[in-house]
Specification:
Blueprint (H helix, E strand, L loop, with lengths): L1 H20 L7 H15 L2 E2 L4 E7 L5 E7 L6 E9 L4 E9 L4 E6 L4 E4 L10 E9 L3 E7 L3 E8 L5 E8 L17 E6 L4 E5 L3 H5 L4 E8 L7 H10 L9 H4 L8 E6 L2 E8 L2 E7 L5 E4 L7 E10 L5 E3 L3 E4 L8 E3 L6 E5 L7 E6 L4 E10 L2 E7 L2 E7 L3 E7 L5 E8 L5 E8 L17 E2 L9 E6 L5 E10 L4 H7 L14 E7 L8 E6 L7 E9 L5 E3 L3 E4 L5
Parallel strand pairs: 1-3, 22-24
Antiparallel strand pairs: 2-11, 3-10, 4-9, 4-11, 5-8, 5-10, 6-9, 7-8, 12-13, 13-18, 14-17, 14-19, 15-16, 16-17, 19-20, 19-21, 23-30, 24-29, 25-28, 25-30, 26-27, 26-29, 31-32, 32-35, 33-34, 33-36, 36-37, 36-38
Length: 559
């Protein structure tokens, strides 16, 4: 199919070549060979569209050629060629087959091995190279010509298969496909925090002229800067994921890949691509030219790229990328634990940070006691820097540890849920004087449905083989309060937090056989068809109470 297209355009090659040769002397034998070679190269080329971005796929070590024709003009006619490598560095050059030496040109935005050729056509050869380049930067060549000429672009990738985009225009007065960059295209870092970096950049002239169709997109990653948006998208795809088109970021809904997370906040759209080599975050911020990147990791170097994107054409231009390292996370404040002293901590669930407690042992054997009051808590204990215990707490938990005198223990606690959690902590060398009372196998309160009446209920709970004091409290609640009361109950709070009118009774009991250490109570004088919340508190030798799990019971409506 390609050969048929080439054969179709062959007469144009011959016609242009004939026109160019009309005013030139017959070439010598050596120039004849060069002339034939030039025609052969043009013959095996494709026509490059004018005014349209063309995607070119390159195979490793196989050159690919495109050509375009400029007609003769009475005045110098400008044209521009922009080439955007989307992956590895490439080599590309511009060759011209023309009849006159009246030609001039220059390249812009280059920072690699580029070369400009502007000289008289003294050689008898009809084909000459006017520009070549090697690198992976976006490169734009601006040329001027008043004579009929046939141009060929040759592209070569020597590293691997890749693709590039090429944009040719001979109409420089009808606007720009690519958004314009400001005179100073640098990105400035104006603020650095532990988890944030604030960036600012100068406005693109295109944003000031066409606010509705232009926006800024920011790319954040931990590897390196990208010189074009298509290079960034290629890198993301090569890591095994698909990136939605930039055009779709703010205009159309789309389905995310499993490795992607979308965050929409304050009209800003973030796409987080989670790859094995780290995450790449793409954030489109509209026409704002200042942005604070959130949710970064402390003490980590990040690379930031800003692209100004034309939403109508999907064309983009890249600012000069920058990088910054977030600040180190401050060392957590360490609280000293003292023998036998009980402390209660409220752990911030939103920040999910560790709270640290330190203890220097004055005995070889010590015991840590933890009572979970509310929420979910993770505990991590180290001795002289080595982990000795780590788990999620549930109810009451003891850790008995052996070591040497003056060993240093570090206890770290954090909430594992978004709401705040609370826990009581004690360390003691006195195993024979435990902080908390001896506990039964279960702290659940049981109610007997068959024994319910319109004005009484019967409940039971387990005791221990150690004589202890038990106090019961009750309170009326509404249907819509049940879930909240059960979820928010502070399991460390004692009877001192209850109103005196809620107290039902206090009693002592025990049984040497744990299987028979059960007590029951019938509470009378209740209202029919009413919900009641019952709590039982167990007191040990230290006087610190342990609260059983709350129980909700409803009296019968009709008897």
């Amino acid at each position: 199919l390609k050969m048929s297209r080439l054969e179709f355009y062959l007469p144009l090659h011959i016609l242009v070549a004939a026109c160019l040769c009309h005013s030139i002397k017959a070439p010598t034998t050596s120039s004849q060979q060069s002339f034939k070679t030039g025609l052969f190269n043009f013959y095996h080329s494709l026509i490059l569209a004018d005014g349209k971005e063309t995607t070119v796929h390159l195979l490793k070590d196989i050159p690919k050629r495109y050509y375009f024709v400029l007609e003769e003009s009475r005045v110098l006619s400008p044209f521009t060629i922009t080439v955007t490598p989307c992956d590895v560095p490439i080599e590309w050059s511009i060759l011209v087959h023309k009849a006159s030496a009246s030609f001039s040109g220059k390249q812009t935005q280059g920072d690699h091995d580029t070369q400009e050729v502007s000289k008289s056509q003294k050689s008898p050869s009809m084909v000459s190279t006017i520009f070549n380049y090697k690198g992976n930067s976006v490169e734009t060549y601006i040329g001027m010509s008043s004579h009929a000429a046939l141009y060929m672009l040759e592209f070569l990738s020597t590293e691997r298969d890749t693709h590039i985009t090429v944009y040719l225009t001979t109409d420089t007065t009808s606007g720009h496909l690519y958004p314009e960059l400001p005179m100073d295209p640098r990105i400035d870092v104006v603020g650095i925090g532990h988890t944030t970096v604030t960036l600012t950049w100068k406005h693109s002239p295109s944003v000031l002229q066409h606010q509705e169709s232009i926006q800024y997109c920011l790319l954040v990653n931990e590897k390196h800067n990208y010189k074009s948006l298509c290079a960034a998208e290629t890198a993301i795809r090569s890591s095994g994921m698909k990136l939605p088109p930039t055009l779709a970021l703010s205009l159309f809904p789309y389905l995310l890949e499993p490795q992607q997370v979308m965050i929409l906040s304050n009209s800003e759209l973030s796409i987080i691509n989670k790859a094995s080599s780290g995450e790449v975050r793409q954030i489109c911020v509209g026409t704002k030219n200042t942005y604070t990147v959130p949710a970064l990791s402390p003490s980590t170097q990040y690379y930031f790229d800003v692209f100004v994107v034309n939403l109508l054409t999907n064309a983009s231009a890249a600012y000069t990328g920058t990088f910054a390292r977030t600040l180190e996370e401050p060392a957590p404040k360490v609280m000293e634990l003292k023998d036998g002293k009980v402390i209660q901590l409220v752990l911030d669930g939103k920040k999910q940070k560790f709270y640290s407690l330190q203890y220097q042992a004055r005995h070889k054997k010590i015991q840590f006691a933890f009572q979970l009051c509310r929420g979910q808590v993770q505990v991590h204990i180290t001795k002289n820097g080595k982990t000795v215990a780590s788990e999620n707490l549930s109810g009451l938990r003891y850790f008995s540890l052996k070591g040497k005198l003056l060993d240093t223990y570090l206890v770290q606690l954090r909430s594992t849920e978004e709401s705040n959690s609370s826990v009581k902590v004690q360390v003691s060398p006195h195993f024979h004087k435990p902080l908390f009372p001896l506990l039964p196998e279960s702290l659940k309160i049981k109610s007997f449905s068959k024994l319910r009446t319109c004005n009484s209920v019967t409940i039971a709970w387990l005791g221990t083989q150690e004589e202890s004091k038990y106090c019961m409290y009750k309170r009326r609640i509404e249907e819509d309060q049940v879930w909240r009361e059960l979820q928010s109950a502070d399991r460390c709070s004692g009877p001192e937090s209850r109103h005196k009118s809620e107290k039902v009774l206090c009693k002592y009991f025990y049984h040497l056989n744990p299987q028979r250490a059960v007590t029951t109570e019938t509470i009378k004088g209740l209202d029919a068809g009413t919900l009641y919340l019952f709590d039982v508190y167990l007191f040990g030798p230290s006087g610190i109470p342990v609260r059983y799990h709350s129980k909700v019971v409803k009296t019968r409506k009709k008897c």
